[in-house]
Structures are given as structure tokens and as C-alpha cells.
Amino acid sequence: MSKKIIILNGSPRKKGNTATLTAAFKRGAEKAGNQVTEFFLGEMNINGCKGCFGGGKDCNSPCVQKDDMDVIYPVYQEADIVILASPLYYWTISGQLKTAFDRLFAVAECNPNYRNPKKDMALIMAAEGYGFEESEYWYDRLEKHLGWKSIGKVLCGGVMNVGDISENEKLDEAYQLGVSIQ
Ligand SMILES: Cc1cc2nc3c(=O)[nH]c(=O)nc-3n(C[C@H](O)[C@H](O)[C@H](O)COP(=O)(O)O)c2cc1C
């Protein structure tokens, strides 16, 4: 059955290595009949969470802050699978992805027990080196805490500049992850 997939792409480089990985993933997922929506968070106006615990009153626009998260919320709520995509920045995910993810707390606030909607998830990352441990730790904790299910991780080290990833075998891994979603 066709799945709805949201990609939260935290790279500011729309033609960068992370975006090349997500494009390969998207090609595979769409080939398998799924519906994919990708957000390039760096070009959106998304403020940091205020920690006010005042959201969740209107589930169509659950945060007290009104910005581009209002475009993401309905797609996120509908999605079966959430793809967290980011370059490695100082041994963790980019601020763009973290900022947007924090703001998804407003959706949990729609539930009286702060229960998050159940999703499958995957992690897609690119980096100059190979130090993905901290990002994986964050992702694995998230999976456990949210009660989500990881369907895979595509972690591509050894890529620094735009274009470095072309011909990289991780592109096929990303594509195959997409194709595997049925
Ligand atoms: C602010 C900043 C911090 C970075 N920190 C790391 C790092 O800790 N480890 C690493 O291997 N690469 C690091 N990099 C390199 C990027 O992860 C690498 O260039 C990656 O390919 C960028 O992905 P993109 O093309 O999707 O933007 C950093 C780059 C920037 C701009």
C-alpha cells in the first residue's frame, strides 16, 4: 500500500550531498508508488521552540508561533514515515533540523498525555568524516522515546563539497531504502 513520506531536510545546500541522498531516496520511494514531500528547512522561516507548553489548542496550527511550520504540520500529521535528513555539523544534526523537530512537540501537545503520533522513521546524513555516533545516539533515543520504528539509516561519510557524493555507493543504498517502502 502506498505510504505518505515527509522528508525534513536540514541541509542549507539544495544541491548538496544530503539533498543528493534524499533525491535518490525519493526516486526509489516514488518508484515503489509512495508519495513523498520534502521540505528544505533552511529556506523556510522556522523559529526555535519557546518552551511555553502553550501549544496543542488547534491541531491544524498547533504551535503558538505562526511561521512556516504551519506548512509542515499538516504534512507531518498525515505522514506514515518521517525522514530526518541532515549534514553532520559539529558531530550532530544541523540546527535547521533540530529547530524544526523541536517544534513538532506542538503536535504532541494536541494529546493530553503529550503522546506523539506513531510513525516510521529513517535517518539520512552526509559528512566530511565518519563521526555519526552522536547523531545515531540522538536518533535511537528519539525512536525509543517516541515509540517510532526505524526503517533504516543511510550515513555517507567522506563527502565535503557539493558534488563529492556523485557515484557514491550510498546513493544506491538511499534509493534501495526508498524502493523497500511498500
Ligand atoms: C558548520 C559545519 C560543521 C561541520 N561539522 C562537521 C563535523 O563535525 N564532522 C564532519 O565530518 N563534517 C562536518 N562538516 C562537513 C559537512 O558535514 C559536509 O560538508 C557535508 O557533506 C555537508 O552536507 P551538504 O552538502 O548536504 O550540506 C561541517 C560543515 C559545516 C558547514
Automatic annotation (TrEMBL):
Coiled-coil positions: none
Entry keyword annotation includes Flavoprotein: yes
Native species: Sporofaciens musculi
Domain NADPH-dependent FMN reductase-like residues, every copy: 4-125
Pfam families xrefs: FMN_red
Name of protein: Flavodoxin family protein
Residue ranges of the TM segments: none
Domain of life (superkingdom): Bacteria
Database matches in PANTHER family: IRON-SULFUR FLAVOPROTEIN, NAD(P)H-DEPENDENT FMN-CONTAINING OXIDOREDUCTASE YWQN-RELATED
Swiss-Prot/TrEMBL keywords: Flavoprotein, FMN
Molecular function per GO: oxidoreductase activity
